[in-house]
Design goal:
Chain A is of the alpha+beta class and 441 residues long. Chain A is built from 10 helices and 20 strands. Chain A folds into 4 domains: 83 residues; 95 residues, TATA-Binding Protein (2-Layer Sandwich), CATH 3.30.310; 120 residues, Tick-borne Encephalitis virus Glycoprotein, domain 1 (Sandwich); 89 residues, no CATH class. In chain A, the strands form 3 sheets. In chain A, strands 5, 6, 7, 8, 12, 13, 14, 15 and 16 form a 9-stranded mixed beta sheet that branches. In chain A, strands 4, 9, 10, 11, 17 and 18 form a 6-stranded antiparallel beta sheet that branches. A 5-stranded antiparallel beta sheet of chain A has the order 1-20-19-3-2, with helices on one face. The two termini of chain B are 28 Å apart. The chains are: A alpha+beta (441), B mainly alpha (277).
Chain lengths: 441, 277
């Protein structure tokens, strides 16, 4: 039983297991990019045919990253990572107390030098050394310059492990939503949701206990650049006021600059417009992207975006007179054709009928999200990167040296890490300096 | 002559110089002692880089932002970073054998930009107006450059085999070649890691989701994992030599696929992606 356990532990702490699981994960990920993920059933049936879809769906290929086999492989890798960190730490401790005799495969330096010179040279080479063993035959010492390699390795692997805890926390706490605001709108955004993994897992969600923050859209501004006879979005910003239990925070948000308040983050996500189209005596209430029909005309009309806001053209900035383009198609299988440009309050004849664009109101699309795993992820990745950069860019030398008192010979062996580190050169330097010492005295 | 035409002409001049350098690197491979032992090829490459720097400065002034937005600009930046990284390595190590592969890759990337893509600059969309734009791209491309040079070193080492002595490569130098490839990947790896993490942090700031398993994200993680495999293989007996070399080459293929292939894949399979350009 003990032997079986030992073998199992050895397997779980082996680099071979790391390599194998990484290969498996790579394979799954590759599949995940070949099959569209998380789509609707109808889309898959359309793309693959019903027969093929029914064969593939049970294998989980349409949601690989949440499939049991992907998660199992990731868990095995995590256990492997955790045990390797632990093993690394134990080996390191053991190594420090168990050195005996000449290091195997060490370079022999026979210079007939005094033992004090050896220590002097190591000091001059900025090694921190420790005599592990000393008797009448000689002494054995270990020296380190820089930060111990294994320590750095344990350090950044540890924070990589912590980041996985961050992902787990994300999975348990995140939920999101989308709200459209018109200027002056006040809306409530929940701080908890039944969509949070923690509530789903333990079924403890009570909608009556949900805290809410109030969000008001104070101002909204859309900016365009005139580029190749086209309104190209330059920026869109919303000034929001968030309130919760007497506390208030105001901020102008834009893409890449969200508002964080009471665990929620509010993102500038989209923009849109609400407007009316007057067709002779009828008024149609629409929003950007809507399709509508007009009595007496076979086919559908569509209005994509109504351009409102500021226009940057060369060195000038001007207010846009609200305008849009109207599209038409005869049937569902036909392509949209651009018909006319509509300008606010100006009657324009379209297919024999006068159409007028009226009452344009801008809308700001706000995406909100709660994700308590993010701070932990940021911290763990920061330390992971620090450890990794130090491991790679800071040279570290570790030597093991045996001094033979009878022959006055030295046996040196070492290892190094970091791209600028060369252990052979370092041992050359030690030899050279010992030579100098010998000649001096 | 408008600025775009001027840029195009300059870019073609850069490609021509890279091509000349490529020819001289071939000559060096065939006749290692001729033409100052390959120094002519290196000098030409240096001239090409100087002109390419000028081209990038012009583009930056013209677009008012660093030229990484369109695929045309990214390819130009890619070939520039690769050549610069190689010249640094060549200057440090005095080994110019992989110059032939580097120039071939730089020419291929530049030609793809010039022939296949529009050089017309576009205004920067709101999502790209971020402090991460420069950091993410520069760091990620620096890692790409290191990986390309590592790949070229590995390939040349494999192709030359025992013929290395013709180029003054003794057993010690061959070890150095292995070490060079390893060091380059070691150099590129934290940069790639930072590139991925900064990309995730940027996505979090812009869209509210640090990771959505977008094909570009997934492939960048695949590339990262292949290099993790390589670095772990280097400390695993029996994996140190040949298998590690294969992983280096595989890493390069994944990296190119992350950079270019994902765009084709998403279009081919009609997979939605936030990163297609």
């Amino acid at each position: 039983m003990k032997e079986l356990f030992r073998k199992f532990y050895k397997l779980l702490t082996s680099t071979k297991l790391t390599l194998t699981v990484l290969f498996i994960l790579i394979f799954f990920m590759l599949l995940g990019t070949l099959f569209p993920q998380g789509g609707a059933h109808d889309e898959y049936v359309k793309a693959f045919g019903l027969k093929m879809y029914l064969r593939l769906a049970p294998l989980g290929v349409f949601d690989i990253f949440h499939s049991w086999y992907f998660i199992t492989a990731a868990i095995v890798l995590y256990i492997n990572l955790f045990l390797c960190i632990l093993r690394g730490y134990l080996i390191e401790r053991k190594k420090l107390i168990s050195f005996k005799g000449k290091p195997r495969g060490a370079r022999e330096i026979t210079l007939n030098v005094d033992s004090s010179h050896v220590e002097e040279v190591l000091k001059e080479r900025r090694f921190r050394y420790k005599k592990v063993l000393e008797d009448e035959k000689g002494f054995f010492l270990t020296g380190v310059r820089g930060i111990r390699r294994r320590f750095l390795s344990i350090f950044f692997h540890f924070f990589l492990g912590i980041s996985i805890v961050g992902f787990l926390l994300s999975a348990l706490t995140k939920f999101d939503g989308y709200i459209d605001f018109e200027i002056g709108d006040k809306k409530l955004i929940p701080r908890q949701s039944g969509e949070m993994g923690i509530y789903k897992k333990f079924r403890t969600f009570n909608p009556e206990n949900v805290d809410k923050i109030e969000v008001e859209l104070k101002d909204y501004e859309m900016e365009y650049i005139w580029f190749k006879d086209y309104y190209y979005p330059k920026d869109y910003k919303s000034t929001l006021i968030a309130r919760y239990k007497g506390k208030e925070k105001m901020r102008t948000i834009e893409v890449n600059s969200p508002l964080r308040f009471k665990g929620l983050t509010l993102y500038q996500s989209g923009y849109g417009q609400k407007f009316d189209i007057e067709v002779e005596d009828t008024v149609v209430h629409l929003s950007s992207g809507s399709i509508f029909n007009v009595k007496g005309i076979e086919g559908s009309f569509k209005i994509r975006t109504v351009y409102v806001g500021k226009l940057f053209r060369d060195t000038t900035v001007s207010e846009i007179v609200p305008n849009t383009k109207i599209y038409f198609r005869e049937g569902v299988d036909k392509k949209w054709k651009m018909l006319e440009k509509l300008v606010l309050d100006e009657p324009i004849p379209v297919m024999g009928k006068n159409m007028v664009l009226r009452n344009v109101k801008e809308e700001s699309g706000i995406y909100y999200k709660r994700d308590d795993g993010v701070p932990l992820l940021y911290v763990s990745f920061l330390f992971f990167m620090i450890g990794l950069f130090m491991r790679v860019f800071f040279p570290t030398y570790e030597i093991r040296l045996f001094y033979d008192k009878n022959t006055k010979s030295i046996y040196v062996k070492g290892s190094c890490s970091g791209i600028a580190a060369y252990i052979e050169k370092e041992i050359d330097e030690i030899e050279k300096m010992l030579n100098l010492k010998k000649n001096k005295y | 002559m408008n600025i775009i035409n001027f840029e195009m002409n300059l870019f073609i001049a850069v490609i021509s110089i890279y091509f000349l350098s490529f020819i001289f690197y071939i000559v060096y491979l065939i006749f290692p002692r001729l033409l100052y032992k390959g120094k002519v090829a290196s000098s030409l490459l240096l001239i090409g880089v100087i002109l390419h720097t000028f081209l990038i400065i012009i583009r930056t002034i013209e677009t008012k932002h660093p030229p990484f937005q369109t695929l045309y600009e990214s390819l130009s930046w890619f070939s520039y970073s690769v050549v610069v990284a190689y010249l640094i390595v060549e200057w440090r190590r005095k080994v110019r054998l992989s110059g032939i592969i580097i120039t071939a890759i730089a020419i291929a990337a530049s030609l793809y930009a010039v022939i296949g893509l529009s050089p017309e600059p576009k205004p920067l969309p709101p999502a790209l107006q971020s402090k991460w734009f420069v950091w993410h791209v520069v760091v990620a491309f620096s890692s790409y450059a290191a990986f390309v040079v590592a790949f070229s070193v590995e390939i040349i080492f494999l192709l030359l085999g025992k013929r290395g002595e013709r180029y003054g490569l003794d057993e010690k130098m061959k070890k150095l070649f292995h070490r060079m490839a390893y060091n380059l990947i070691l150099f590129g790896f934290p940069l790639l890691t930072f590139g991925i993490i900064s990309g995730a942090a940027w996505a979090q700031e812009a869209w509210g989701g640090y990771w959505v398993w977008d094909p570009k994200e997934t492939w960048s993680l695949i590339t990262w994992m292949v290099y993790v495999l390589y670095l772990h293989a280097k400390v695993t007996p029996r994996w140190v030599e040949k298998r590690a070399s294969i992983l280096n080459i595989l890493g390069f293929i994944c990296m190119i696929f992350t950079f270019l292939g994902v765009n084709w894949l998403t279009r081919l399979l009609n997979i939605p992606s936030l990163h297609t350009y």
